[in-house]
Amino acid sequence: MESSRERGAEAVLNLKTNSSVSITYHPLFGLHDDLLLLEIDDKILPHVLNNRVIVRGQPDEDAVFCTSTTTYALKFVGTSNSVFLIPPSDCSFLNGNDVEEEKVVASVIKVAPGVMELVEVAPKLDKLKWLLAENPYKGGEEDFMEELSEMGGNWNNGLYRWEDLVDRVQASDGELREGLRAFNAVEICGYWRIVDEMYMGMVLSMVLHNSVLCGWSLGALNEDEVVGVLESDGFPREIARHCLEMYGNKVRDEDGGYLWKLDERKVCVHFARSVLSGGKMKMDSFMEKWMQKIPGGMIASFEMLEGEVLSERIGVETWIRSFSVSSLPCTPAERFAALFRERQKWESKELDPYIRDLRVPGLSSEGLLLKYTRRTQPTLDAEPIFTAR
Known about the structure:
Layout: E1 4-7, H1 10-13, E2 22-25, E3 38-39, H2 45-49, E4 54-56, E5 64-66, E6 71-85, H3 98-101, E7 103-108, E8 110-121, H4 125-133, H5 142-151, H6 162-168, H7 173-182, E9 185-188, E10 191-194, H8 197-214, H9 223-232, H10 237-247, E11 248-252, E12 258-262, H11 264-275, E13 281-282, H12 283-293, E14 309-314, E15 317-322, H13 332-342, E16 346-347, H14 348-351, H15 365-372, E17 373-376, E18 385-388
Parallel strand pairs: 1-7, 2-7, 3-8
Antiparallel strand pairs: 4-5, 5-6, 6-8, 9-10, 11-12, 13-15, 14-15, 16-18, 17-18
Keywords: DNA replication
InterPro entries: Dcc1
Organism: Aquilegia coerulea
């Protein structure tokens, strides 16, 4: 009489064409809610096989699956078919010809009701923005931060190391780094911080002041020289370098090295924000005060303020006020909700700067407009108007 031996997944993996295998209940058969099937494509498989993936999310959040550069939502998809989970087995009890003479039976440990699918999604960077905003850097904290860094804790002071952010933010490492750059964060004594806008403005003003005193060209700033002078003025080295990164761009010099060139738009936008910090102003008054603050050699134009200000006509006067895209949520639903709280109707040319930075995998800007807005156009040559859907 032919005997049977229970085997694991190998019995199925080695199954030949037009052949079959019997199945039986594994001694540990049950619900096993801790075992889930994950369906992945060929693009992600190498990351899984080389242990370059991680699941992130706090207990009260939906989990996300991250490679080094991409974030995926985990979606459960049920199936009406029976999907058997067969664990690997220890086949050491089988010897030589025994395998051929015995009937192989695969042991099923669980019947899976479905699989987890991966859907590429945008990183959850609003939480990163919120964490960074808890404790912006305002200067004069170096001794405290060095002591804190040595002790290896933050005591809930709103200070976060890289590993703290990785643990809390649902984003891949690459997307998290991009988010830190987008929010102008800087690492100080091991902690990632955003810098208070007024303090950063003071640093920029010192760069401009010293450029006059030292004869620096705003289009060819030497990093070591600028940082050295700012350090002598009492600013931390990291902040001095961060100022150049925030308001400038690296350019090659004639010797193949690098210099910094202050970005005209970034500098002009900074001073526009400063002028409007007290609230809305008449356009003529704003333009006059703004132009007075622009550094020599730079030319400001109102077009630079796209996505930074809103204007409205009240009677015969045009008024302007600050409304920066950087202050808006990163998720599309919350972004459009905030925009339509600000204005019930938007013209296309006004709305575009406030949604241009939105990135949703598989959905273009036109797709976002279709999903979240209603478009009206009285005549073919009229500017489209968008309202909330």
